[in-house]
Prior knowledge:
With 397 residues, this protein is mostly helical. Helices cover 82% and strands 0% of the residues.
Amino acid sequence: MPSTFRDLPPVVWTLFAGTIVNRLGYLVTPFLVFFLASRGVTGSETSYVLGALGAGHLLGPAVGGVLADRIGRRPTMLIGLIGAAAAQGALFLAPGAWTMAAAALLISAAGSTVSPAAYALLADAVDSERRRRAYALFGWGVNIGTAVGGVLGGCLAARGYWLLFAVDAGSMLLYALVVTFRLREPERPARNDRRAEDGIGYGVVLRDRLALLTLPLFGVQLFVYSLTEVALPLAIRDSGLSPAVYGAMAAVNAVLVVALQPFATAWLARLPQLAVQSAGSALIAVGVALTGLADGVAGYAVSVVVWSLGEVVVAGIAASVVANLAPAHARGRYQGAFGWTWGTARFAALTLGVTVYTALGPAVLWWTALVAGAAAAAGTPALAKGIERRTKHELAA
């Protein structure tokens, strides 16, 4: 284990292990386009199901952030994991496109309540100087699970899509057991005047001008990254390639991140973090745009390698920046706002991205990704001084 992670506390390692278990079963969403096609769902109906999946990522983080601050981190995670597992079965058994859309909404809404609570728990457990490493380790766990899950998903899909749903639901329930028996709820901050003034809603975030500048920039970057989950399988399908090829591309991404991220995190920690975020986001935009030039397995592999390197570079930075902006009593809501930003980006990729791809053509989408990603990357370093001042203020407090 690289030394960059060795001084992190046990709660971080427990979340890391639980995340690996959960992501081993993250199989349904990446293969959802292929599953819907096997059920005779048309292209227009597919956009409704994918849109519902994206809409759940708008609802879940907002609810999860409030619940994490209101009822606690662990109860929120359990509600999300158990609810999402039940919704997996509902999606598989759904008789038509509209019931599939409803089940997809439940899967994403329940599942996305987990992240704000988990991210807030990480922020509770470590100080600002170690948060980037804690979130990078968490992301590393996601990719370790995905590395195995991508290959596993391709193999299981060839033998029956029901296996994807069974493994996905089972992994969520297993993670729920980890949360139940291995995690403890942290002590809540003492109630003070500032906490009373902020209330229990998202006013505390909406009044934070620095957060309102930071989150949209991250949102554009996340939109571009989300196209790798949505538009990439469409491009592979349109090239006449099988679902197993997409599984292989997912595995290429995950293996690269698993192999490189711990060492890149240690090396890049000595550099200004928002500058690193900017450079990595630019790499992701270029890699996604290169998808438009691919017409076979080799071309897709090159594009995946480029945006995977960008993913390695940015690992843990955005979440740690948001955590450092948040007062202790509102960490769940700040992470909920970050999750909502990610959900908005994903929703835009699932709806607007698919619409642009099918109606205006793939080339328009790839150019949009390149221009938007480059612009957001260029604007990120301008926030460095304000974020540095906020981090020092919160650390002193």
